[in-house]
Amino acid sequence: xxxxxxxxxxxxxxxxxxxxxxxxxxxxxxxxxxxxxxxxxxxxxxxxxxxxxxxxxxxxxxxxxxxxxxxxxxxxxxxxxxxxxxxxxxxxxxxxxxxxxxxxxxxxxxxxxxxxxxxxxxxxxxxxxxxxxxxxxxxxxxxxxxxxxxxxxxxxxxxxxxxxxxxxxxxxxxxxxxxxxxxxxxxxxxxxxxxxxxxxxxxxxxxxxxxxxxxxxxxxxxxxxxx
Length: 227
Prior knowledge:
This protein is an alpha/beta fold. 55% of the residues lie in helices and 17% in strands.
């Protein structure tokens, strides 16, 4: 009986997840000459620990070097919100397995991550890596999507100026301006059956030319010159 209970609780504890909404405290062993500089709070989401508030104690050594808690640095990138395991999971499912973000979002629904944030999860590491290799840009040019704008703000803490792509801006305005007349024109073409009539007329003209033109090579040359 004892061994049965032992095996049961061991299996149960292995499947337990820390409830969301908890606050986790991250600090390093106090060493001689170190002083507490500040305590930083931020929201963190990982696959292992779910969503929680991280409280990190930042210390200053005697040589004025800033020392951060290694425990939190192993879970999430510096200044980031999403854990390494979550970033790797989203990237693997979308880029390697070809799954849609909607499917990944449904799978991660218990973590209460906004769908737009999944784009942020996959984009933010790429922007940070590009910044480390080539330096922080003076400005960024992107479309009107909230995902890329949010990822840029997170990667560079809102210090980089944004510019909107001219093409995407005009395309968005054009859709608003011409949506109603385009819909009306498409409906009129459908009601008059113009597309089917034009196809029927083309087939008739092609058949007539085949029957009345003796030298088809001359027809091909004529079409080439007219084009």
